[in-house]
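Appendix C: a fully annotated inverse folding record. The material below is reproduced so that readers can follow the format used throughout the book. The structure is listed first as tokens, followed by the designed sequence.
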């Protein structure tokens, strides 16, 4: 079998795995924003706000901005990563009024405010 044929088989397997297991292609951190439901955002916020990590003392960047190098990031809790695999490989920064979810390249991919929107 030629290399071209083997390449097509490998590509088909990857496409099939991605279709069969939607989280499969998102196991590594990317700069794309994970699509989080309100329930997932609430679970992340509740878990992170209870964590004993310092609150960042700088102005919070907006979604799609880069996080300054001097702002330390924290690992997301393991139970949250198991529950919400979309955020595997991401980190967080805790601010007084929000939580930022940050990609491995320090790009802000999600902002979860302290307040909850009413339906």
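Designed amino acids, in order:
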């Amino acid at each position: 079998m030629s290399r071209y044929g083997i390449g097509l088989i490998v590509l088909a397997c990857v496409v099939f795995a991605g279709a069969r297991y939607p989280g499969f292609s998102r196991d590594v951190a990317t700069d794309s924003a994970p699509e989080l439901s309100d329930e997932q955002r609430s679970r992340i916020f509740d878990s992170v706000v209870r964590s004993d990590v310092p609150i960042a003392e700088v102005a919070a960047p907006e979604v799609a901005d880069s996080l300054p190098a001097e702002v330390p990031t924290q690992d997301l809790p393991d139970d949250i990563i198991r529950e919400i695999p979309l955020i595997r490989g991401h980190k967080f920064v805790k601010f007084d009024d929000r939580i930022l979810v940050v990609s491995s390249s320090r790009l802000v991919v999600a902002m979860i405010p302290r307040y909850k929107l009413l339906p």
